[in-house]
Design a protein that fits this description.
Shape: globular
Number of helices: 17
Helix content: 25-40%
Strand content: 15-25%
Distance between the termini: 60 Å
Number of strands: 26
Strand order of the largest sheet: 11-12-13-14-15
CATH architecture of the domain at 11-130: 3-Layer(aba) Sandwich
Radius of gyration: 25 Å
């Protein structure tokens, strides 16, 4: 899916803005490198129709690997290299992958019995395979309601429909610069990559340091890199649309999705905000629409894409009245093949409707207004979203029970925090810190609860099913963080603990507890950094928080920065400071 007439136009740009270390690949260079890596995969036994896992950081070589797999006519399985090794291994096995592209030192721990191919491997290139519309393009895993992740099989035809719409809707052409910001194992990454390469545009890839900074720094990067089209998860997009943008801004389309949009763009922005909705099972985007700065209520999720049909149905699978609430069912060219290796679940969610043919049942609720815009109203089942990540409580509950010290577990969202209620086995003493550490071996960070509560038995309804609405206030029976949490000692630790407590709305933690495992995230982290800069007068960044993570280590960073600043002062500067500390 490469544009073969883009000449020496850059296909990829990767690296810090303005850095001499920036990597640039032209389309001919990308074709050569991906062709030679495809040759190496073929020499290792990979054939058309196979599934090849990829565990590489965000980089040019990651894109080269995806193109090489597609060139062979195989499907790729994206893995986030920051996931626990156990989770990556489980998904490689579940998907039936025949090879893994990863650095040899890390890949051996993930791959099991299948071969590991280094991303730098090269062999004589082979011709590109034909891409049948029904052949697989990629397999991507989402959280599963049965306690197991679900592998969604997306075909070449599904992906081609998304690509064609995106190119036409947002005016992509050779030279158009688009950002690659989405999580590597998030389906939005496919949405970012393939339309750009198919249109001859340039995919601009930030370094990890840029991605970890706050929205202000990300905005600066978008301006400096002259990006025209970018996707940002809802929580980040809401910050970007509230900013002032300079006249040099090239950004003309900011795409968002993954969570309910709660804000509208302020008037006068140089770009259009486009809200999008779509489950992984419908190839990333099913509905899309620009968001105006005026209007009442929450923004809509737009209208269906040209080759997509959206039906709002009642419990009997009949259309609801105009303007009424109904479950969102999706049909059309972007409905995926089904779930890998799970025909029963596929039959349950991908339904043959007597009137409209094959539809995907989303479990989401919506209504259509008199202008044809669709409004998202929440989930019809127990599936939840936390900070843009779609999560099935059953997968987390299954992981908790698998620990062995827990007899039962329930997971739900309270005040935007993911909470786990646990029933301990007889004679077992639990701590929140220990449970988080054990879950971190098998679950990605967004699926680890922010709080844990102790409960004697799970509340059940009359039919014997878990009654989540009857789960008690988690604060009344909160599980202690540790058996003996270390309290702040120095003034710096005390001040930092107070700043973090205010941000996350709790103070039941010690100075060695991880901010992100306590329920912190990048948005709350931004608040912490702003207040810490004011409190300590040092140039602290969000990257420091990502690296230090605890009150104790953050306090040490601040004290080191303060000492370095003092060491840089001249004797005259110190004398002036002593004479006038406020100055």
């Amino acid at each position: 899916m490469l544009h073969h007439h883009a000449g020496l136009q850059a296909a990829l740009c990767y690296g810090p803005s303005g850095s001499r270390g920036e990597t640039r690949l032209t389309y001919p260079e990308l074709a050569v490198q991906s062709g030679e890596l495809a040759g190496a995969l073929h020499a290792g036994g990979v054939r058309a129709g196979d599934c090849v896992a990829v565990s590489l950081p965000r980089s040019a070589e990651h894109v080269v690997a995806l193109v090489a797999i597609r060139q062979l006519g195989a499907a790729y399985l994206p893995l986030d290299p920051e996931w626990p090794v156990a989770r990556q291994t489980a998904l490689v096995s579940r998907a039936g992958a025949t090879a893994l592209i990863a650095p040899a030192d890390r890949g051996a721990a993930i791959a099991g019995a299948i071969p590991v191919v280094d991303p730098a491997a090269r062999a004589a290139p082979i011709g590109a395979a034909d891409h049948g519309a029904d052949d697989l393009a990629y397999v991507i895993y989402t959280s599963g309601s049965t306690g197991e992740p679900k592998g969604v099989e997306v075909t070449n035809g599904n992906l081609a429909a998304l690509v064609a719409w995106h190119i036409a809707a947002f005016g992509l052409q050779p030279g158009t610069r688009s950002a690659h910001l989405a999580g590597l194992a998030f389906d939005a990454a496919a949405w970012e990559i393939w339309p750009v390469l198919a249109s001859g545009g340039t995919l601009v890839i930030p370094d990890d340091e840029t991605l970890r900074y706050d929205a202000a720094r990300l905005a600066d990067w978008l301006v400096a890199e002259r990006v025209e089209v970018a996707f940002a998860p809802t929580a980040i997009a809401e910050q970007l649309i509230a900013r002032e943008w300079p006249d040099t801004t090239c950004l003309r389309v900011l795409l968002t999705g993954a969570d309910r949009l709660k804000a509208r763009p302020r008037p006068g922005l140089p770009f259009t905000l486009v809200n999008n909705y779509g489950p992984t099972e419908c190839t990333v985007v099913a509905t899309s629409g620009p968001v105006s700065s005026d209007g009442a209520g929450l923004p809509a999720i737009g209208t269906p894409l040209p080759d997509v049909q959206v039906h709002l149905l009642d419990a009997a699978q009949a259309p609801v009245a105009e303007g009424a609430e109904g479950e969102i069912w999706i049909g059309g060219a972007q409905v995926a093949r089904g779930y890998r290796g799970d025909p029963r679940l596929t039959a349950d969610r991908f339904v043959s409707h007597p009137q409209w043919g094959r539809l995907y049942r989303t479990g989401d609720l919506g209504r259509r207004d008199n202008e044809g815009q669709i409004h998202f109203l929440g989930r019809a089942d127990a599936q939840i979203k936390v900070r843009g990540h779609r999560i099935e409580p059953g997968e987390i509950e299954a992981a908790l029970v698998a620990i062995g010290t827990i007899a039962g577990a329930a997971v739900a969202v309270r005040d935007d925090d993911l909470i786990a209620w646990v029933v301990p086995r007889a004679g077992v003493q639990l701590t929140a810190h220990a449970l988080r550490a054990q879950l971190a071996d098998s679950l990605p960070a967004p699926m680890i609860p922010a709080r844990f509560a102790l409960i004697e038995a799970l509340p059940l309804n009359h039919s014997g099913k878990l009654d989540r609405s009857a789960l008690p206030d988690p604060m009344r029976t909160a599980l202690p963080e540790t058996h003996a949490a270390r309290a702040p000692q120095s003034p710096t630790e005390q001040r930092f603990a107070a700043i973090i407590a205010e941000a996350i709305g709790r103070s039941d933690f010690g100075i060695d507890d991880d901010f992100f495992l306590l329920g912190g995230h990048s948005l709350l982290g931004t608040q912490v950094i702003v207040k810490a800069r004011e409190a300590f007068g040092v140039d602290l960044t969000l990257l420091h928080l990502f690296e230090a993570r605890t009150v104790a280590r953050l306090a040490a960073v601040v004290e080191d920065m303060a000492m370095a600043h003092l060491a840089s002062l001249s004797d005259a500067d110190i004398a002036r400071l002593m004479a006038d500390p406020a100055g």
